[in-house]
Predict the structure.
Amino acid sequence: MKALVPVLLVSALAVPLLATPSSAQVVGTADSIADALRDYGLKAESGTDSEGDPKIESRIEGIHFSIWFYGCEDAPCTSLEFRAGFDLDTPLSAAKVNEWNRTKRFGKAWIDDEGDPFLEMLVPLGPDGLSDSGFELVLDMWRVGASEFSSFIGW
C-alpha cells in the first residue's frame, strides 16, 4: 500500500494539469480571422480575391489594409498576408523603398507601376493557427509597421 501512495499522489497532482484549458486559437479561416479582428475593435469585411480565396478588408489607425489568405486547399489556410497600398500624388522612388526594406525588420515594401507604395507582412500559420496572444502580437506589429511606413512615405 505504501508503494501505491506516491503513484496516487502523482496521479492526483497531474489531473489539474490535464484539465487546464488550452488558450484560445485563431485558426487560418476567414471567419476566425474576421472574428479576431472584431474582438480587437477593428472592422472586418469578408470577401474573396480573383482566385476565389478568402480576403478581408479592414482599417487600422486610419490605414486601409487587406488580409490575403494562402494555402487554403481543403483545410485552414497556411499563411496570411497583411497588405496596405498608399495612393500618392508623387511617385515614391525605388531608393526610398529600398531604404525602408534595408532598415526595417517587419514589413516588406514595394512600388507598383504608378510609383505607389505597398507594405506587406507575411504571417505563417501552424496547423492549429495562432494563440489569441500571438494574433494580438501580429496585429500590433502590423499596426506599428503600417503607421511607421505611412509616416516614412509622408502619407
About this structure: Residues 132-152 form the longest helix (21 residues). The CA atoms of residues 71 and 77 lie 5 Å apart.
